[in-house]
Design goal:
The complex is a heterodimer of chains A (about 300) and B (about 220). Chain A is of the alpha/beta class and about 300 residues long. Chain A is about 40% helix and about 15% strand. In chain A, α7 links the parallel β6 and β7 (about 215-220). The two termini of chain A are about 20 Å apart. Chain B has about 220 residues and is of the alpha/beta class. Classes of the chains: A alpha/beta (about 300), B alpha/beta (about 220).
Chain lengths: ~300, ~220
């Protein structure tokens, strides 16, 4: 089924896609959403809206997506299975699509113990692969999960998911992508890439399995703001590998933030050359104002207008 | 087997505070194996309670018992006479045993002295790890004999998540990533093809505790 989201149209035309990310406010201050949205307008094709990322309570992803739609921007609604059972998941998908959401990123979500509600009970009724299967069933079969019951209306969703080539066991990561493809995913955004060799190795395994022809892969990048941030991420965030030479470049730079942007631009240019990479996902965490500069320097502007 | 840990002594003292004569009951099965509620622990806890109460000038009489399995009604019924002599029961059996006492003796208050923690395996002397969640539909044949429901922090059926690093889980860095263990074992068995299968959503609402407390009825065994 054609969903006709802007992101889908761009990827189907073979244009190198650019997505950005917007973290909703830790409260109901809509001005934060508007400010961040304007920083991304015109520089990306669609905007991921995170779903209580790192298990910190924030404005709901669906409500934030609705504001973006009102502002004339295209959201990619992130949905984690950590906080919802399949009743809530399917109900939210009804609601989100009714509000005009056309892209959904299916995630398991960061574990709740990383966040600010450590006493909560996590749900995990489905995992991310099962969520993909659920959304595909709703869209393509027009029924609820595990049932014959017909859905009133049509669920038009371009289905996304994440994959992390930097987590272990490395040899299994392409197989796992294969499972997501088998479950029905249409596009993938990867964890932020710093270790280019390992990413290329992973992409080779992806191509060897022919997966690059079945799913659009958007390579994830995050500009490093400072040497401290680089060191912190390298040491403390599981599933992120930052090679020493990149940390050194940022640490030794006179203007570390500028160097971070420069590295990010170089990475995008290198990623663009890899067969099977169909776009880039720029995660400028609390640094959304840099997306205009990064996309400009990387030669990704102007973003196409597709009818 | 079921694993348990003794509650903090202050909490136990608060539970028994209103009483001057109690029965402290352990269990000779699972909780004895994990040194939380066996005969030895009954003796030690009884002494601690007596000393603590003597210290504040409020003596307590503690009768001691350790039936072979507190969760079997016939063992609990051994207490019938003793129960008449006490005001309350402090049980250091698992949560099942505590409830057997409660059901058997409707007029006697019963308090738990341990926290029942998990069904697990002995790793070495003094170390136990969770292994089974009694989810009601075993999938160990698909996962190389390693249970992701009990051992993956996110209960992933199609793991591992992006937080698996060098064999460890990002949530508890000392814990093995269950999916790394699954991968390693299936690789060793030349069964990696098993990991290509998309495992579909589990029927939690039919198979598991989510359907309400479960019950097994074996007509062939009923008398």
């Amino acid at each position: 089924m054609k969903v006709e989201s802007n992101l889908e149209k761009i990827l189907k035309k073979g244009i190198f896609a650019v997505t950005g990310e917007l973290g909703p406010p830790k409260g109901n201050d809509v001005s934060v959403v508007k400010r961040k949205a304007e920083l991304l307008r015109g520089y990306v094709d669609a905007i991921n809206v995170t779903d209580n990322q790192t298990a910190i309570v924030r404005m709901s992803s669906m409500a934030t997506c609705s504001f973006l739609i009102q502002l004339g921007l295209e959201p990619i609604m992130q949905m984690v299975t950590r906080d919802r059972n399949r009743i809530a998941i399917q109900s939210d998908i009804f609601g989100a699509t009714a509000l005009g959401v056309k892209n959904l990123l299916c995630l398991t979500g960061d574990h709740h113990t990383f966040g600010n509600q450590v006493d909560s009970k996590n749900v995990h009724d489905l995992d991310s692969v099962q969520l993909i299967h659920c959304v595909r069933t709703m869209r393509d079969e027009g029924t609820l999960l595990g049932g014959e019951e017909k859905i009133e209306g049509e669920i038009k969703i371009f289905i996304g998911a994440a994959e992390n080539p930097f987590a272990d066991p490395f040899e299994f990561r392409a197989t796992r992508l294969g499972k997501k493809v088998a479950a029905g995913v249409n596009f993938i955004q990867t964890q932020c890439i710093y270790d280019m060799n390992r990413f290329k190795e992973w992409m080779k395994m992806v191509r060897d399995r022919g997966l690059h022809e079945k799913v659009h892969i958007l390579a994830g990048v995050t500009p490093l703001k400072s040497g401290g941030m680089a060191r912190y991420m390298a040491k403390n965030v599981s599933g992120i590998i930052i090679p020493d030479e990149i940390i050194d470049r940022v640490v030794k730079a006179k203007k570390p933030a500028e160097e971070g942007i420069k590295i990010c631009v170089e990475q995008i240019q290198e990623l663009r050359e890899i067969e099977g990479v169909h776009g880039v996902h720029i995660m400028a965490i609390e640094w959304e104002q840099m997306v205009s500069k990064i996309t400009e320097m990387a030669g990704l502007l102007p973003r196409p207008k597709i009818e | 087997m079921i694993k348990a840990e003794q509650k903090p002594i202050d909490e136990i003292l608060r539970s028994v505070d209103p009483y001057n004569r109690i029965l402290l009951s352990g269990c000779g099965a699972c909780v004895a194996v994990c040194h939380a509620g066996g005969e030895k622990e009954v003796g030690l806890l009884a002494s601690s309670l007596r000393m603590a109460r003597q210290k504040i000038g409020k003596r307590i009489e503690v009768l001691e018992a350790t039936p072979a399995r507190q969760c079997e009604p016939e063992f609990a019924s051994e207490f019938a006479e003793t129960i008449e002599k006490v005001e309350a029961v402090l049980s250091i059996a698992c949560g099942v045993g505590v409830q057997t006492i409660a059901r058997s003796f409707p007029n006697t208050p019963v308090f738990p002295g341990v926290n029942t923690t998990f069904m697990g395996e002995t790793m070495m002397h003094g170390v136990w790890e969770e292994r089974c969640q009694a989810c009601g539909n075993c999938i160990l044949e698909k996962t190389g004999g390693v249970c992701p429901i009990a051992r993956c922090a996110k209960q992933l059926f199609n793991g591992p998540c992006g937080g698996s690093s060098k064999g460890k889980c990002e949530i508890k860095r000392e814990a093995d990533c269950a999916w790394q263990l699954i991968y390693d074992r299936l690789k060793n068995l030349n069964q990696l093809y098993k990991l290509e299968e998309v495992i579909l959503p589990k029927r939690w609402g039919v198979e598991s505790r989510d359907s309400g407390p479960r019950r097994i009825v074996r007509e062939d065994l009923k008398v």
